[in-house]
């Protein structure tokens, strides 16, 4: 099977790694064309977004141009927004016309799931994109600007209260970064504000935080958060958000000008509209090869896929680690199909998790070893630096971190 057109939708963790792996596997080979499509022309390294918000890392340094990553022409990139997919006709419909395919890899990521909570979409700050991270940073700085000249103690308290909904990795990492930014840097420069006036609340529906790590480490993390002054409310589903307050299921109301939604991921509208089996989060149910039945040659990976792991007896979580391993598996199977060889089922191998808990602190498990405190945080930085794309960007982030050790975080609220 030679000279086929492989179209990959999305240049995030799943899509970009599929394109790179296929480019490598098909080098000098089959005459097949690899085309990568994305509505933005950069790959976003979302695990460092909370450091963008806190001002530890510059926004540009977590975004890399896909064209530069394409290297020596192993795959082509086109900036297009996917509108829908016609699986029967083997056509992707985009804002700039139709794109036919022989093989299709759908790696469009996910969108925020508000679980139908009243007022959540209108009154919370989402946290998925680079714009979200920069917007939140500006918003936090604006709250401090307003609080420092606010004479009414009640209104000042509301301006300095930040509620995060969801205590997964993103919520926990962002809460601790915000706490460091607010208590270590901002209160020092906004004279007249008492550090005790800054309130950070993490509202979690279940009975535990950071479900990606073991119960023991999660308990340790919870203890650390509480000692840092972060109010963690377990068993506290949010049932409504208004302009200025969060309502919990037990009837409590938390007054806060800022509510950040760090809970819930569901499939993008393009995947939700596919005429295939989907789960309650809109994700497409894939088989053991990550293929979409009954459409051979169409794969779904990453946050948009419902991929059941028979060994874990669970659907794999929406993480970069899962998306990258799925990408490698799909690239391998497409290359095998082009050579007329049988496909191999996807096997997920969990390598561990590391969670930053603010400067100098963290928890994590890697290859069966557990870490906490400074060693976990140093390992976290080392691992994520190694996972960044491109040496130029690794150096940029490393320099940002070195500057952060010597000088305090920037306070400029840049708006353009
Ligand atoms: C703040 C944050 C922190 C995170 N931290 C971690 C972490 O520490 N560790 C970890 O393992 N995971 C982490 N994750 C999760 C991880 O980022 C995702 O699981 C991973 O990115 C999923 O990969 P993906 O390829 O499915 O989607 P993505 O990486 O999101 O890529 C999807 C791509 O599709 C593009 N796209 C979407 N819709 C369209 C369209 N209609 N047309 C064209 N292009 C489109 C997007 O622009 C994007 O480039 C984090 C996520 C967030 C938001």
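Sequence proposed for the structure above (416 residues):
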């Amino acid at each position: 099977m030679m000279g086929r057109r492989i179209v990959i939708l999305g240049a995030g963790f799943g899509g970009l790694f599929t394109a790179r792996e296929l480019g490598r596997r098909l080098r000098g080979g089959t005459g097949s064309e690899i085309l990568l499509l994305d509505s933005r022309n950069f790959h976003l390294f979302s695990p460092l977004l909370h450091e963008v918000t806190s001002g530890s890392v510059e926004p540009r340094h977590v975004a890399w141009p896909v064209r530069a990553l394409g290297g020596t022409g192993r795959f082509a990139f086109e900036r297009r927004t996917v509108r829908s997919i016609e699986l029967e006709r083997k056509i992707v419909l985009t804002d700039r016309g139709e794109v036919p395919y022989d093989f299709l890899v759908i790696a469009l990521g996910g969108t925020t799931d508000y679980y139908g909570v009243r007022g959540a979409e209108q009154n919370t700050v989402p946290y998925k994109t680079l714009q979200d991270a920069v917007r939140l940073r500006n918003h936090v700085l604006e709250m401090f600007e307003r609080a420092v000249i606010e004479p009414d103690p009640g209104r000042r308290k509301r301006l300095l209260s930040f509620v995060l909904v969801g205590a997964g990795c993103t919520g926990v990492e962002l809460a601790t970064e915000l706490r460091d930014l607010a208590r270590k840097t901002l209160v020092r420069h906004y004279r007249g504000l008492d550090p005790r006036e800054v309130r950070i609340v993490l509202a979690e529906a279940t009975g535990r935080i950071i479900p990606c790590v073991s119960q023991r480490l999660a308990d340790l993390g919870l203890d650390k958060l509480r000692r840092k002054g972060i109010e963690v409310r377990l068993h506290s589903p949010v049932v409504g958000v208004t302009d200025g307050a969060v309502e919990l299921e037990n009837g409590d109301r938390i007054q806060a000008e800022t509510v950040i939604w760090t809970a819930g991921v569901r499939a993008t509208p393009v995947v939700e509209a596919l005429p295939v089996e989907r789960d309650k989060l809109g994700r497409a149910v894939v088989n053991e090869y990550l293929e979409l039945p009954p459409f051979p040659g169409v794969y779904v990976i990453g946050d948009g896929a419902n991929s059941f792991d028979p060994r874990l007896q669970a659907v794999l979580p929406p993480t970069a680690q899962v998306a990258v391993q799925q990408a490698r598996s799909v690239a391998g199977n497409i290359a095998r199909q082009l050579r007329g060889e049988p496909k191999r089922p996807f096997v997920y191998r969990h390598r561990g998790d590391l969670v930053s808990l603010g400067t100098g602190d963290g928890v994590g498990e890697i290859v069966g070893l557990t870490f906490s405190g400074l060693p976990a945080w140093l390992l976290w930085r080392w691992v994520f630096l190694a996972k960044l794309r491109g040496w130029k960007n690794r150096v940029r982030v490393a320099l940002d971190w070195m500057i952060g050790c010597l000088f305090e975080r920037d306070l400029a609220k840049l708006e353009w």
